[in-house]
Specification:
This is HEAT repeat domain-containing protein. The chain has 79 residues and is an all-alpha fold. It contains 4 helices and no strands. It has one domain. The termini are far apart.
C-alpha cells in the first residue's frame, strides 16, 4: 500500500484504486483527473500517485489508459 503525505493525494489515490465495482465509475475517473491537475501544477506526490496507479495490478484497463494519458506515461512495450 502506498502512502502519501498529502492527504488529498492519498484520498484521491484510494478513490481511483477502489475496485468495488467491475467497471470504471465516475469517482475513479474524477480522482484521476484531479490527480492530473494537481500534478500539472507541480505536485510531485500527485504525479507519483498516478505512476503508482498505472502500475497497480487491479486497475481496470480503461482506467489505466486514462491514467497513462493524464500523466503522459508511455505504455509498457509488448513482446
Amino acid at each position: 500500500m502506498h502512502h502519501f503525505e498529502d492527504k488529498t493525494v492519498f484520498q484521491l489515490y484510494l478513490s481511483a484504486k477502489n475496485d468495488t465495482e467491475p467497471m470504471v465509475n465516475d469517482i475513479q475517473r474524477d480522482a484521476v483527473d484531479l490527480l492530473g491537475i494537481m500534478a500539472q501544477k507541480g505536485n510531485a506526490e500527485a504525479y507519483d500517485a498516478l505512476n503508482a496507479l498505472a502500475d497497480a495490478p487491479m486497475i481496470h484497463p480503461l482506467l489505466r489508459e486514462q491514467i497513462r494519458q493524464t500523466a503522459r506515461i508511455a505504455p509498457p512495450a509488448t513482446k
